[in-house]
Amino acid sequence: MIKTWELDPNFKYEILKEPGGEHLTACFQCSTCTLGCPLTEIIPTYNPRRMIQMSLLGMRNEVLSNPDLWVCLICQTCTARCPQDVQIADLLGAIRRIAEREEETGKLKISSVRPSFDKAFMHQIQKYGRLYDMGLAMEYYKVKEGSFIKGMMAMSKDYKKFGMRMFKKGKMGVKSMFPEKVKDREVMRKIFERMGAEKK
Amino acid sequence: MSNLKYAYFPGCPSESTAIDQDMSVKAVFERLGVELEEMEDWNCCGASEVEDPEIVYALNARNLAIAEKKGLNIMTPCSICYYNLQRSNKVLRENEELRKKIHSIDSSLTYNGGVEVKHVVDALVNDIGIEEISSKVQKKVNVKVAPYYGCYMGRPPLTAFDDPDAPILMDRLIEVIGGEVVPFDYRKAKCCGGPLMMTVPDIAFKMARDILEGAKNAGADCIVLACPLCGMMLDAKQEDIEEAFGIKIGLPVLYITQLLGLALGISPDKLGLNKNVVDTKAIVGRVV
User: Fold this and answer.
1) pLDDT band at B2 (very low <50, low <70, confident <90, very high)
2) Which of B50, B101, B190 would you mutate first to test chain A, the one with the most A CBs within 10 A?
3) What is the ipTM, given to two decimal places?
4) pLDDT digits (tens, 9 = 90+) for A32-70
């Protein structure tokens, strides 16, 4: 149920300002995005059309705390089919970043582990300029499990068989233990420091 | 084709989990007489984890600038790298304000819009051409193939070079080397679940299972694809998916350049066919 006294009329403007969220107000609620979404086969209640309408109405808390925000595959089917060019895949990304900033300031608790994974991934690029799989996995599991030791235990449980399989095929080995690095790593640090909506 | 040359953007998995793709791309282009010059000091495209588009544009401004200095167009074998490089290219060409903002960070990010970005499938079919490839085919691939395109060849519209729902370019490559394309309809371009592999694995596995079972039920001997993340889900994780659902799939998964390379007469070892996780010997044996 909508509680009109809790609506935030500025929420849509907040999204419109976020890179990727620029086309929010073009939505005319036709539901093409939801009908084509492959996730609805697995989660029948998954409904990007509804998330857009809730955003337009200003249901800020409900949208930002909706766990469905974090399962989008970014497969772009919705974006390709939208007759209004809302660019829904990017739009949901914009809303996810607003939610992440809310969490950083302590106003929201995100139950999904996806922000931790994305952050750990970005740290690898910031540090090395390329993806370092081992560094990503160690950082992600540490954050997800709450400590380095617990993280290592969970990681070896999840990835022991997989790791052996890849090792046997020569796809992981001693070389994978160390990061590949670009020479100019200073510019990587500068990109993450200077770019992004929150730095405006 | 001797005048065609690309700046090669291998992508982060090229030396590890997708080394088979990297090897086969290099071998195929060499056989076709198209030179690949690996880009000096390229950086990660941002993958799907860097969600802020402006950071993606800045990361790829550097990559585009590296190719521009060489006067070469970029070719990449990874669909996600392609998407990020191409959308950055299109946005940076249009948006002068953004170019200036990125330039102000560091002079190595100065890009003037003079580079074209090509996915390996686009380069093979539209730059090199089916006729040219056909003239170099030495062997017939007697295999039934499920062509799996995934998300970023036909979507989003900004960067697409094939149809969003019914892509066709890999079908044409398979047909020219004598393979039989099995009916794979909407699954051709349905997501493999890759982006959720680490964070919501149960959804990722269900997505991948649908592609694998769809290919098997269509009577395919193998799946052919052109993206390292799809390769990770459908090949490297196939055993985990079988275990999770208590099913048996056992379907070989090849990069399109591996199957094409066999038809061009390149040795299986040079194409990395001993590195695919599901054994590919049965497929190799049917190329004569």
Assistant:
1) low
2) B50
3) 0.95
4) 999 999 999 999 999 999 999 999 999 999 999 999 999
Using alpha carbons, select from A127, A131, A199, A190 the residue that is nearest to residue B107: A190
Q: Which of A42, A77, A122 sits opposite B49 (nearest CB)?
A: A122
Pick among A88, A98, A104, A131 to test the B interface (most B CBs inside 10 A): A131
Cβ of B43 and A125 within 8 Å? yes
What single DSSP character describes residue B126? I
**Which structural domain, as residue segments, surrounds residue B63?**
5-119
Residues B141, B261 within the same domain: yes
* Residue B270 sits in the same domain as residue B147: yes
Q: Are residues B157 and B257 in the same domain?
A: yes
CA distance A82 to A64: 23
Contacts of B275 in chain A (CB under 8 A): 169-171
Domain residue ranges in chain A = 4-104, 114-195
Residues B115 and B142 in one domain: no
CB contact under 8 A, B277 and A183: no
Q: What is the pLDDT of residue B48?
A: 93
- Please tell us whether the domain made up of A4-104 is placed in CATH 3.50.50.60: no
Test B15 with A117 for CB contact under 8 angstroms: no
Q: What is the CATH number of the domain that holds B205?
A: 3.40.50.11810
Q: Which residue of B has its CA nearest to A19?
A: B53
In chain B, the N- to C-terminal Cα span, in Å, equals 26
In a domain, B33, yes or no: yes
Residues B107-160 have pLDDT tens digits of: 999 999 999 999 999 999 999 999 999 999 999 999 999 999 999 999 999 999
Asked if residue B131 belongs to a domain, the reply is no
Render pLDDT for A12-34 as a digit per residue (tens, 0 to 9): 999 999 999 999 999 999 999 99
